[in-house]
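Researcher: Next sequence.
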Amino acid sequence: MASPLRLAIGGLGAIGLAVASRIDNGDVPGITLAAVSARDAQKAQAKIAGLRNKPQLIPLDALADCADVVLESVPARHFSDIAEPAIAKGRIFMPLSVGQLITNMHLVEKAKETGARIVVPTGALLGLDAVRGVSEGNVESVRIVSRKPPRGLAGAPHLVQNGISVDGLTSPLKVFVGTARQAIVGFPANVNVAVALSLAGIGPDRTTIEIWADPGVDRNTHTIEVRSDSSDLSMTIANIPTEENPATGKITALSALAALRRLTAPLVVGT
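Model: Next structure:
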């Protein structure tokens, strides 16, 4: 039998800790938890105290030294601290802050040189298999409409810079319309889904997004519309937010686990 893949996780928030717990529990055959990293070492120690096999607690830029797979789940500003070493050392790099790839596409070229792989989980989205499929043909347009409870958008740079308040809304408010590339600048913690969609399809400059602060929804909801010469797609997903972070859906951690499972599974279903 092949040796298990060693996993290192950057960030022990709602997603990172959930993945760490499931891997430690042996829920994904062929993968072991080797190391974790977090900004607050004392809190991190408390979080991993209940794990059966405690991983190393090390700095972000050291994760790639002791792992075959590096999962990134940190605030966007720390993305490069994990990504650069992982790619340089030829690891499998799994980013959840996928929006940061747009301004770090040199990592793709670097991966060609080092043998690294960048594997992007679907995250809080749906239908990426179909989008990837139709994109082998001709795609006319890809559009995503995201509706979120106002508190899940509060504090986004675009809102702050443009003086847009989402407090006390009684009806839906469209707070942004533009391309996926533009959206990730103004909403770095909210629209990684749009960037994942764009990378699976026709790119961040042709993929358009509307963002709504909607007091009438209690879930992060995304609707995708695709027009192509092979299929027209219409898909909607309504994600239950995590208790820890209203901007993050519970499905995101599960999607990361599913992506990890694909790395070692004898049967893989889907494009």
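Model: The first strand starts at residue 5 and ends at 10. The chain has two domains: 5-124+251-264, 128-239.
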